[in-house]
Amino acid sequence: MTDRTDIFAGDDPFEIARRWLAEATETELNDPNAMALSTVDADGLPNVRMVLLKDITDDAFWFYTNYDSVKGQELQGAGKAAIVLHWKSLRRQLRVRGTVTRDDGPEADAYYASRSLKSRLGAWASKQSRPLSSRTALMAEVAKMTARHGTNPPRPPFWGGFRINPVEIEFWADGAFRLHDRFVWRREDPDKAWEITRLNP
């Protein structure tokens, strides 16, 4: 596509996404990897919340959470999700839709081990998305988990990674007079070639 130049240039959407994230890391004040994650429940009712993107590999976007949380259950139930990263400093956004797979293998173990001790213990203590009587009760649970697991807690069996394998990736950049630039990469499934289309703003 002849006019896909500058920030949109490249033959690999994952490489473009990594480049945009690296640029955002230099310009965003807080959490350049913050993304809105959209799921649906069993009735098809949408749900969205902010989570942190942890990696962009050559075929997927990765994040980590509690498998028993609402988002964890919805991700596993539907097997599909969408994310958007919006960088105000760059006036850009990245949208992704695709299939979701759970990953609780070595990558999840390594990421869990890299987190601070308090975050690792917090993952054990929090029954994410379920009712909580008070913050005091939560801190008591943290203390109990600290006593049980010490300074090297293993990764909880209910906590780990999800990977989104995209069937659609859209790159959006702000344009004068709201004449934005949008390029969408689409494929029927992860084994097929990408088709690239410029979209109207």
TrEMBL record:
The keyword Coiled coil does not apply. This is Pyridoxine/pyridoxamine 5'-phosphate oxidase. Belongs to the pyridoxamine 5'-phosphate oxidase family. SUPFAM superfamilies: FMN-binding split barrel. Its cofactor is FMN. Catalyzes the oxidation of either pyridoxine 5'-phosphate (PNP) or pyridoxamine 5'-phosphate (PMP) into pyridoxal 5'-phosphate (PLP). One of its GO terms (molecular function) is pyridoxamine phosphate oxidase activity. Homodimer. Binds 1 FMN per subunit. It catalyses: pyridoxamine 5'-phosphate + O2 + H2O = pyridoxal 5'-phosphate + H2O2 + NH4(+); pyridoxine 5'-phosphate + O2 = pyridoxal 5'-phosphate + H2O2. PANTHER family: PYRIDOXINE-5'-PHOSPHATE OXIDASE (PTHR10851:SF0), PYRIDOXINE-5-PHOSPHATE OXIDASE (PTHR10851). Signal peptide: none annotated. Residues 159-201 form the Pyridoxine 5'-phosphate oxidase dimerisation C-terminal domain. Substrate binds at K54, Y111, R115, S119, R178, L179, H180. Its EC number is 1.4.3.5. The keyword Nucleus does not apply. One of its GO terms (biological process) is pyridoxine biosynthetic process. FMN binds at R49, M50, V51, L52, L53, K54, Y64, T65, K71, Q93, Q128, S129, W172, R182. Residues 22-146 form the Pyridoxamine 5'-phosphate oxidase N-terminal domain. It comes from Roseovarius gahaiensis. Pathway: Cofactor metabolism; pyridoxal 5'-phosphate salvage; pyridoxal 5'-phosphate from pyridoxamine 5'-phosphate: step 1/1; Cofactor metabolism; pyridoxal 5'-phosphate salvage; pyridoxal 5'-phosphate from pyridoxine 5'-phosphate: step 1/1. Keywords: Flavoprotein, FMN, Oxidoreductase, Pyridoxine biosynthesis.
